[in-house]
Amino acid sequence: MNENIRISTTRDKMKATGTAVFLVWLFYFSASFLDLDIPKFISRLGNAAAVLQRLMTVDFQDLLAILDGTLSSVCLAVSALAIGFAVSMILSFLAAANVTPSRILSSAIKGGVAVIRAVPALVWILMVVASVGFGNTGGMIGLIFPTVGYLTKSFTASIEDMGYGHIEAMKATGANRPVMILKALVPELTSPFLSWTAIRFEGNIAESISLGMVGVGGVGSMLMKALGKYDYGSITAIILVIFITLFVVELLVNQLKRGIRRT
After folding, report:
1. N or C: which end of the chain has fewer CB within 10 A?
2. 186-211 helix and 63-95 helix, angle to the nearest 10 degrees
3. In the chain, where are the structural domains located?
4. Which ranges in the chain belong to alpha helices (H)?
5. pLDDT, tens digit, for every residue of 218-250?
6. Rounded distance, CA 88 to CA 218, Å?
7. Is residue 1 over pLDDT 60?
8. How would CATH label the architecture of 63-262?
């Protein structure tokens, strides 16, 4: 028995060593492939210090405009979240294996969601903006795609985690599918659905700010203009407002999740 333990221990050490060697090789290969110039980067750290020193000056002269742009970004995120939530609710009940009316439909929805999730959010946004033009409408529609992809997958997993017990019990009473979903599933799924939505809201806020950098509008657009003019005082002011906004959103989301856990 001791011999078996010794062999098992040796095998585990070999696996750990092999994994470490592979990770080191993978890093070396990646760095070589990218032709990273670390010495050049280090030599330019002095420039970074000079830029940081300029960023220490804060110019709140356009604070009202910055707040207005931030509010636009938040409203964009909320609008995309609301529409994405409604669409995902419908799709998730059609996709979940334990409640779907059709296996083919379930597979089709899951496949479509996988495609949506495989394409980065920024790509969706750029495609929509290229199709319908710049502005909040194009940005909101573009943001709906990653929202639906994330929420549909999460909601579907929550429904399937419930198993077939609730479903079979309702079927035994003769309940039809709509009644079964409303009476047996929705009350049980309220907490996980709200938790997933709250998490996605944080992502939508961050992505809506990034939207401005591709011409949609909001505070991201103001940041790009300030960067283009090397207006360091405005850049710092915008970054501070964005940081405070994201911090407040995170506090609200955490508070909401605590409230959900208590219910």
Report:
1. N
2. 140
3. 2-55, 63-262
4. 2-34, 38-43, 45-55, 63-95, 103-118, 121-132, 136-161, 165-172, 177-180, 186-211, 219-228, 232-262
5. 788 888 888 888 888 888 888 898 889 888 888
6. 26
7. no
8. Orthogonal Bundle (1.10)
